[in-house]
From TrEMBL:
GO terms for biological process: lipid A biosynthetic process. Residues 41-226 form the Calcineurin-like phosphoesterase domain. Signal peptide: none annotated. Keywords: Hydrolase, Metal-binding. This is Metallophosphoesterase. Pfam families: Metallophos. One of its GO terms (molecular function) is UDP-2,3-diacylglucosamine hydrolase activity. SUPFAM superfamilies: Metallo-dependent phosphatases. The lineage of its organism: Bacteria, Bacillati, Bacillota, Clostridia, Lachnospirales. One of its GO terms (cellular component) is membrane.
């Protein structure tokens, strides 16, 4: 029994240490939809949950600067539900990044949680919603573009593509069950895809990758799975947020009918969530025509 307690203690200690060990995963994607030989690079931040890497997130900021991205995409859950957004580490991080980079911010389920509080008469929830509104307003004022079921067209010389943020609704994150996501539902939120454009879709929940690809997303950017929390050799992530063991999508690159999804392991955790053999991950992507 003593050995078991010692082993569990060591695993918890390693988990706490590991959550400070940032790793960068880089991907290079080539597509005929982007003209010429031009390239564009960007980083993806997902599931930060107000986590920090060094004082004022200096280690994360320095790593992003080292990568020299042309823009930054936030794939949801920078903040944590039931915690005020301001003051907060996520807000300070985005403020610093916005001084140098154009930022496109799509929602995860934690941002959706705050949006759902808009009609609450509970005093605590009303204060949380007020904090969320202030968070968005401050970031809007410094040029952050929120993609809440809307799109932006990006131009770089002859290179053109579109970034869309899909806000699914809380019902698509419920535990122990999977709600269908049909093409009609997606189109009711963000319209039809542009077949001639390279479509980047930020969709926080990776479970619906086949639906995203069917809609026309050439590249889907997701998070939410936290790498499966505990990663096992040869088996991958152990459990999904929907409490499904060995989920189909836990981390990395996936393909479906020549469409791609890149799924971040995330940068942080929340609610005492354990991460083991699962370092926080910053995603760096280069698109080539």
């Amino acid at each position: 029994m003593n050995y078991i307690i010692i082993i569990l203690g060591l695993l918890i200690l390693w988990s706490l240490i590991e959550q400070k060990l940032l790793v960068t995963s880089s991907y290079e994607l080539t597509t005929d939809k982007l003209g010429g030989n031009e390239t564009i690079s960007f980083v993806v931040l997902a599931d930060l949950h107000n986590h920090t890497f060094g004082k004022n997130n200096n280690r994360l900021l320095n790593e992003i600067d080292r990568l020299s991205p042309e823009l930054i995409i936030i794939a949801g859950d920078l903040i944590t539900k039931r915690m005020k957004c301001i003051p907060g580490n996520a807000h300070r991080l985005v403020e610093e990044l916005a001084k140098k980079y154009k930022i496109y911010y799509a929602y995860g389920n934690h941002e959706e949680y705050f949006e759902a509080l808009c009609a609450s008469e509970d005093k605590t929830e009303a204060e949380l919603y007020s904090s969320w509104r202030e968070y968005k307003e401050r970031l809007n004022q410094i040029g952050v573009i929120f993609l809440d079921n809307n799109s932006c067209l990006i131009h770089k010389n002859n290179l053109r593509f579109r970034i869309t943020g899909l806000t699914l609704g809380i019902e698509h994150y419920e535990k122990h069950k999977k709600v269908d996501l049909t093409n009609d539902i997606i189109e009711s939120k963000i319209g039809k895809s542009k077949k001639k454009l390279y479509e980047i879709l930020i969709a926080h929940n990776p479970v619906f990758f086949q639906s995203y690809a069917g809609w026309g997303a050439d590249l889907t950017l997701s998070g939410h799975a936290h790498g499966g929390l505990i990663r096992l050799p040869f088996l991958g992530g152990l459990i999904s947020p929907q409490v499904k063991f060995f989920p189909k999508y836990d981390a990395g690159l996936y393909t479906e009918d020549n469409k791609v999804m890149i799924l971040s392991r995330g940068l942080g955790s929340h609610s005492g969530m354990l991460r083991l053999f699962n370092r926080p991950e910053l995603i760096h992507i280069t698109l080539k025509g």
